[in-house]
Structure formats: C-alpha cells, structure tokens
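Dear support,

I submitted the protein below through the web form. The confirmation email said the job was done, but the results page showed an empty box. After a refresh the structure appeared. I'm attaching both so you can tell me whether what I see now is the final result or a partial one.
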Amino acid sequence: MAFTTLNALDLGVFIPILFVALLGVLVACGYMSSYVLMGYCAMSAIAYSLYAWDKRAAQASRWRISERNLHLVALLGGWPGAIFAQQRLRHKSQKLSFRVIFYSTVLINVALLIAYGWRQFWAF
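What the results page shows now:
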C-alpha cells in the first residue's frame, strides 16, 4: 500500500475550496449572508486575475502590480483565490517577506469574518 502526501499544490487547491465550501454550508444553514460568499468568490476571482497579470508582467519585464495591492485584495477577501494563484501559477510563493504579510492578511480577514459571523449568530 502506497501512501501519498499532500504537497503545497494540493494544499493550495484544498484550503481555498474547503473555505468556500464551509462558507456555502453556513449560508445554506442561514448563519451567513449569501453576499459574504459572493464577495469572497468575486474577490478571489479578482485576486487570481491580478496574480496572473503580475506573473505575465514579470515575465515580460513590464509594469507590475504592487505587493501592497495584492495584499489589499487578499485582506478584502481575495485570499482563497490568491492562495490558489500562488500555487497554480507559481507566483509570489517563495518570497518569505511577502508570505509573512500575506498570511497575516489571511488571519486578519478570517478573524473579521469570525467576528461578523459570531455577531450574526447571536443576533438570531
């Protein structure tokens, strides 16, 4: 019996899908607004597009999207798409200083979502 291990690419796909699926369950159960789920999906699509644009720009030595803007999109809910893009496009996935700030924005975003959800849950 062969054991396989999850590599970074698998986690880069699994974590965003799991997060969006969890949001979908919360929406279906009435604990979260569907607008929250739509916002995360929209911001993730924007984040993925920005990473793809930046990757192409880097390869062509053209104007780049600032790391600050990439972090802002992640903070505003685009982090699932950003993680997916980092792994699929192999872009911005190695620079430690970028990753530290990026995952800080993820933690802040998730903490704000939990606070929002907690408030919504106790409003019932």
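Response: this is the final, complete result; the empty box was a page-load delay. The two ends are 49 Å apart (CA to CA).
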